[in-house]
Amino acid sequence: MKDVHPVCITVNGTKHELTVEARRTLADVLRHDLGYTGTHIGCEHGICGACTVLVDGRPARSCLMFGVQADGQSVETVEGLGAPGALDPLQQAFTDHHGLQCGFCTPGFLMLVTAFLRENPAPTDEEIREAISSNLCRCTGYQGILKAVRAAADAAQDR
Amino acid sequence: MGYVGARVPRLEDPRLLAGAGHFADDENRPGQLWMRIVRSTVAHARLRSVYVAEALAVDGVRAVLTGADISLPAIPIRVGPKADDLQPYLQSALARDRVRYVGEPVAAVLADDPYLAEDGAELVEIDYEELTPVLDARAAGQAGQPSLFDGQSNEAALVTASFGDAAAAFSTAARVVELEVSVGRQTAVPIEPRSLLASFDAAGEQLEIWGGTKVPHFNRRVLAAALGLEPGQIRVHRSDAGGGFGVRGELYPEDLLVPYLARQLGRPVKWTEDRAEHLMAVNHSRDQLHRIAGAFDAEGRLLGIRDEIWHDNGAYLRTHGLTVPELTASMLPGPYRMAGFEAAVHVVLTNKTPCGTYRAPGRYEGTFARERLLDAAAAELGLDPIELRRRNLLTPAELPCNRELRALGTDVVLDAGDYPGLLERAVAESGYRAWEREARDRRAAGRLVGAGAAMFLEKSGLGPYEVAEVEVTPSGQVCVATGGTSLGQGIETVLAQITADALGVGPADVTVIPGDTGLLGDGLGSWASRSTVVGGSAAHCAAEATADLARQAAAVLLDACPEDLSLRGGRLVTAPAGDGPDGVSRSVTLGEIATALAGGPAGRSLPAGPLRARREFAVEHMTYPYGVHFAQVEIDPGTGAVEVLRYFVAGEVGHAINPATVEGQFVGGALQGISGALLEEVQYDSAGQPLTASLIDYLLPFASESVGVVTLVAEDHPSASNPLGAKGAGEAGITATGAAVASAVADALGAPGMALRLPISPERVRELLAGQAR
Questions:
Q1: Best mutation site among A143, A146, A149, A150 for testing chain B: the one with the most B CBs within 10 Å?
Q2: Interface contact flag, B700 A78, Cβ < 8 Å
Q3: Torsion from C-alpha of B750, B754, B760, B761, nearest 10 degrees
Q4: CATH of the domain at B509
Q5: B694 with B636, same domain?
Q6: Where are the domains of chain A?
Q7: DSSP secondary structure string, B6-40?
Q8: CA distances from B644 to A79, A90, B459 (A)
Q9: Across the interface, which of A21, A37, A133 has its CB nearest the CB of B26?
Q10: Torsion angle of the four alpha carbons B222, B224, B225, B230, in this order, in degrees rounded to the nearest 10
């Protein structure tokens, strides 16, 4: 007998009403029920951070949250940032500074940094390093990501 | 000058940054079943029986299959020798009567959703008759050990390599230095787990696959043979991939099962592994023990090297066969001159996850062994380690150098280069001598700071060939289909730059489609640092041929001589009519030429067919990048933790098609290797149970552990093997990391020549500090 529940989750401003099984992760709800496949699953035990989304503005590992826990909440995913032809300044900084290679961890980093820069718009380099140390990247050695976040923060301050 | 050599922004980035990439698990097909693999929970056992009835009773579980239910051949060796005596050691898709490692697939459960498939998998009951596990590689091949394969030795092969007269070198040596060094078991851990989706259309007898990468054409041939189909009946779609590093895209048991079951069950089948599975199912690597000896004369000249190696390959020979042992032996002499060399690699099977390649396979391990030997020799002979290396490096006058060794079916012929020149340049540009002085000063003040260096020789551009097809559409868009695949290395950008230059267009006008067997019937794939060297050269040749075709057609359309036409801005342009600057040029765009060729004006004798060319580019030998790594580290005497303060990578790449992506490879490779030197080790307990089956236990570096890597991308010695002059850049960042970090750690401890085991964990550092280990 499936333990299913009706939920209402707002994703990037769009309200979705659906029925989900209690044990289904938010990551699977986003990816497979709602089609937001930009959120990636890398470890399913909360270490890698590839599945990071914002839940009511705060970064969350969507592999460690159940879909039912997001009922009534507002979720932001990478699809809510810029589209391929209209990247937002943070996305642009990532490509300008070679902050990605395979791109699989990238949506998690983008969401993490989006929340971080909202909270701390003028971070020090050490604060940036500390903030992004919650997610794993296996390709870049992080140098490009550190540069990209620095550049995005500086550009926002200049505007 | 064009786009080759420029820091062109990556064409892959916009889709990946917007979450609009196409990774394997992003694909779904209506009516698909989800597969879950039931894996052995013991390291070594006979399978008495597998009970599936309870699993089948779960609502939504549609099938449960064991080894007895399927008919599939063992997974063949893709690279290297495929001798008959290796066949008993190959892995089957599902175990039949014996399991040989924790994580070995025993049954497949198929259900309507992945959660139900896991429910079913938990109810499959396996009755094991446990056997003694074989876990020690050096003992495994000896008499009295249990056999993994009845009637077969646990030593699957002895791989040997030699040149010159090693015995003479050692008998005349003024000094012989011997060490035992080892590299722990590690694995690549791309952030995207493996995933595969297959759908079989019974009416059209067509099998479609999403999620194949690295070597899709090879895997298609194996699948076709296994399933009784023609290769043309199987289409492997192009896919984004979340990191390759050697492990992704090989044909694993699951890669046979998913297509097979899609056909058998008449429904699409999808499988996505979780991380715990990944860490015990995907290829492991490294895991070698070397007893290495070097013969030196009184001036520190290297006369010869001998190395006896135990390579723990885990429970089976997989697709890489003997590749890693072969490369270990054939690349071990590195960039140095020596009169005699002998290596013997015991390829030993144990009850652990099987092994394959991982970025710089064989070279990471061999470079570590050789460079620790040179450091130890420098200490014993009282020579500066850099000076000892300089004396022994092959000089430009000695290149090309035929090593009279074989690697991956080719002769090892070291091509153009200047090894001592790059070492000198790297010492100067890095300020390495100041790193050494600073380390000495800090040690004098009581801190544990050290500096170390290591040279490496890499190999790249493995043949025999790659295929590319370039086509200009009537709208003027340029499409490139390549046998290479996109693993994050930037192949789309690099091939677009090369093609853009040949056709006089911009990279944004070029769409590169990697690794789609439906668009290109043949190809070799992306591995062995070959995508730019061989795949890029194939794209170059195909684009040049397309340009020639366009020129011939334009000559007809413009009523001009082909030689008088220039190609720029996507147009073929005539020389100005009349003399002087007022002359008027006439032109035709590539798109207009493609349109004309598609249905040209009557009465004109245009070349037949579309504006398209396909070329194979073949190479006879590999091309050999080389370079040097420097590290400066500090040890915390309390915890034993090693912090890398400075790191420098110098590598000769011949010609950097995109310097930004080359630097990215160097920097990313360096952190991956530094992490291998300090953090990463797959560990087992005495029963063969893996102790590192999560990312809590298998340690990867976060930004907090990252290192500010400085790079020197040298382009002083282009390769003569290809029209681009390129040497591969994918592995130079990692190859010497273990060796350089260990060298710096030993220096910090005031014990040059020590630090002989990777990874150098805090526990090992404390043992070294206490004088309880080497």
A1: A143
A2: no
A3: -70
A4: 3.30.365.10
A5: yes
A6: 4-80, 89-158
A7: S-PPPTTHHHHHTT---BGGG---TT-EEEEEEE-
A8: 37, 29, 27
A9: A37
A10: -140
Q: What is the pLDDT of residues B451-498, one digit of tens each?
A: 999 999 999 999 899 999 999 999 999 999 999 999 999 999 999 999
Helices (H) and strands (E) in chain B, counts: 19, 29
**DSSP-derived 3-state class of residue B231:** helix
Interface predicted TM-score of the whole assembly (ipTM), two decimals: 0.98
Q: Tokens at residue B419, please? A: 């090894």
Rounded distance, CA B217 to CA B555, Å?
A: 38
Angle at B119 between CA B114 and CA B121, to 5 degrees: 90
Which secondary-structure segment (H or E) carries B429?
helix B419-430
One-letter amino acid of B611: L
User: Are the C-beta atoms of residues B71 and B18 closer than 8 Å to each other?
Assistant: no
List phi, psi (to 5°) of B700: -115, 155
**What pTM value is reported for the model?**
0.97
Q: For residues B60 and B194, give the distance between their C-alpha atoms in angstroms, rounded to a whole number.
A: 24
**Does residue B61 have a pLDDT over 70?**
yes
Sign of the dihedral defined by the CA atoms of residues B544, B548, B549, B554, in that order: positive
Q: How far is residue A101's CA from residue A94's CA, in Å, rounded to a whole number?
A: 10
The Cα of B690 is separated from the nearest Cα of chain A by a number of Å equal to 17
CB contact under 8 A, B17 and A110: yes
Contacts of B66 (CB under 8 A, 6+ apart): B50, B52, B94, B106, B107
DSSP B359: S
Q: Between chain A and chain B, how many beta carbons pairs sit less than 8 Å apart?
A: 180
| B414 and B558 share one domain | no
Of B751, B736, B733, B688, nearest to B370 by C-alpha is B736
The CATH number, out of the four listed (3.40.50.2000, 1.10.530.10, 1.10.150.120, 3.10.180.10), of the domain defined by the range A89-158? 1.10.150.120
Beta bridge pairs of residue B36: B109
Q: Does A80 touch chain B (CB under 8 A)?
A: no
For the segment A103-155, what is each residue's pLDDT rounded down to a tens digit? 999 999 999 999 999 999 999 999 999 999 999 999 999 999 999 999 999 99
- Contact call for A106 and B660, based on CB within 8 A: no
DSSP code of residue B535: I
- B30 within 8 A of B116, measured Cβ to Cβ: no
